[in-house]
Every structure is written in C-alpha cells, then in structure tokens.
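One-letter codes give the sequence; the fold follows as tokens. An example follows:
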Amino acid sequence: MDPSLLRERELFKKRALSTPAVEKRPAPSSDSSSSKKKKVKVEQGGSSSSKQNTDHSNGSFNLKALSGGSGYKFGVLAKIVNYMKTRHQRGDTHPLTLEEILDETQHLDIGLKQKQWLMSEALVNNPKIEVVDGKYAFKPKYNLKDKKALLRLLDKHDQRGLGGILLEDIEEGLPNAQKAIKALGDQIIFVNRPDKKKILFYNDKSCQFTVDEETGQPAASSCQASRKHGRCSRGGGAQ
C-alpha cells in the first residue's frame, strides 16, 4: 500500500480514538410518563392520608365523622343515659321528650335515622330508661323519693332477710343521696365488702350483731323481742 495512504489511515485512527463517544438515549415513551404521573398522585394521596392521621392523633377527631356508623349511635345513646341519670340524681326526675333530651345533650343535629332508632329501639329497650306518656325518664334499680323511702326500703330488706343494699344503687335512685344518708344518722349502718364497695343496712336497735373482720359481713346476732317475729336477719349480703 502507498505509504501516504498508510499515514492517513493511522492519523484517522488516532483522531477516532481521541474523540469521546456520546451515546444517544432514546426518547421517553408515553407509558413511562404516565407511570410517573401515577406515582406523583399516589404520593399526594399518601400525604393527605397521613395528614388526616396526624389530625386524629392531635385530638381533633370529630365524632360526627362516624355519624353513619354504629359507634356514633351508641355513643349518643350512652351520653343520653348518663345525662338522664345525672339529672335524676340531682332531683330533676320529670320525664323529657326526645327533642328536649337532644337539646340538653347538644345532639339536635343528629340525622333522622338516628332519631328514629332512639325512639323505636334504643331508648324503649334500655333497662335504665322508662317511657312515660311518650316521654323518657331515668329508671333506677330503687326509685326513692326521700330519706323516709330509703329507711322503709332498708327495713323491708331487713325483715325479709334480704340483707343490705349497695350504696351505689341507693345513690343512683335517691336524689341528693348523701344528704339523705347523713340525715338518717345511726338509723342505718355501713358495712364494707372485700371489694371496697359499701352496703347499707337498716339499724334495728333491738338487734345487736358483730361484723366478721375477714368478710366484712355481719356474723352473729342476738335479738330480743324482734327475734320472735323473725326480724333479726342481717346475715345476708347486698341485694
């Protein structure tokens, strides 16, 4: 081969090796572009969800968000029953209409379905609520008007050998219970159960008895005239 051609070929090789090669990338397809958009949307949705969770954890959770579920319905029912109990204990024993109850418990904004459920099922079937002429009132275990009614109840339990009555049941049914109990003085007796709950007994002064220190229950008694009539009966527990 001609020496001049060989020199040119060698020069061409050197120039080719010294020039950096640039790879041309293919243009992005429409599929990859749409997948990126989807990814962005997913991330945005995730951040929105996490924001809601943060709001809930910060205590800004709204009970009305569950207005269509059973949790909200039973929450309203529990609040109503507790409110009716509280007003009964403070002496407000007259019945209320459903609208009055919802107004006083700040639930006037509940839906028609919830109102219908309260009227047809929840309140009428609740053991702590009674219906009086289309209105609703609290229904305690013992419905006591005053201290005299309490003393008569305790005396009746004593005579029938039913034992005492739990203080919490009396407080539930007797308005201003502590004031009435204090006024009765030594006409009633307190006994503490092992579970720390208090029981009230009628104090029949014709009977004397001792209390078992381990059980907290009256253990032995000696009756005088009332024994003949079967009245000394404090051995029983709370009814």
About this structure: The two ends are 126 Å apart (CA to CA). Residues 45-68, 221-236 have pLDDT under 50 and may be disordered. The beta strands are 129-132, 135-138, 165-166, 188-192, 198-202, 207-211, 218-223. The longest helix spans residues 30-57.
